[in-house]
């Protein structure tokens, strides 16, 4: 599969309530009706004659959507990296081994009415599930906020939670509207997102997160597209105003060039929970708002004066200090991935390991 699909993301711990009830625009889709049909990324018309009561999600992002629209009680199976969601540990773990996202036998044994599969799952896996008689919806590649709105709406339509999906999308748009008001007319800082030696460039939803938050994405500015490694030399030359990290890889590399970056010297590094920054799902809004709070604290406070956050600043974002937070036991152990000075074989092996790891966290 294309690297852009393989490298779409990660996630870790954090539990948040379903977004608050949003504006009246959500009422446009207050009621679902069945039968319903939606064409998925394989070109298949996925039809459900009745509202599904048993749903399996093959990615944390799909699970997050189900939680946010108020449909978590319908979920009977999740992958292991959805465990950060409240109550997910009570669901059956359907994760596969090796390059497989799902254990086909486990999924089939749950007798789901619907399986929600991310675009990073292989089409072969989707075919096997369909050959076993299951109804599978295969999401399109998500590269923007609009794509997340689309996927949230489609999911709600398929599972009979149109009202919840509509409210969630309206809530997201309201929060993004507040951000747009805050950043309007402000001077945009240069920002760079780093994770395991990689960054996100043009054509990714992470790029849009940074841009929507009011920053210039350095990776896109230097011509990087999709998800690629970025060299220390490029980072040092660009010397971004802000370095963005996540809590799976929360430290700037401890090397001379990085230590001398203005962002490091002046404590302008931002740590964002991974399930916000790297999952194309509703909580990515928190990544946007957290970045805007740091880029433009006064402007954001003024624009946000009438909005009450659903989570505390401590749980939403962490300012990096000299001591990094302890890593989770699920954190990937990699000391040299993507760093200069390694042979071709070592780099290739490291890249393949990272690709597989990241795919599972999408």
UniProtKB/TrEMBL annotation:
Residue runs in coiled coils: none
Spans through the membrane: none
Low complexity biased stretches: 306-326
Pfam families: Peripla_BP_2
Gene3D superfamilies named among the record's database cross-references: Nitrogenase molybdenum iron protein domain
Sorted UniProt keywords: Signal
GO annotation (BP), single: cellular response to iron ion
Entry superkingdom: Archaea
A GO cellular component annotation in the UniProt record: plasma membrane
InterPro entries referenced in this protein's UniProt entry, alphabetically: ABC_Transporter_SBP (IPR050902), ABC_transptr_periplasmic_BD (IPR002491), Peripla_PGF_1 (IPR026469), PGF_CTERM (IPR026371), Vit_B12_bind_prot (IPR054828)
Region feature Disordered, mapped onto this chain: 306-340
Xref: CDD domains: YvrC
Fe/B12 periplasmic-binding domain span: 54-299
UniProt key word Signal: yes
Identification of the protein by name: Iron complex transport system substrate-binding protein
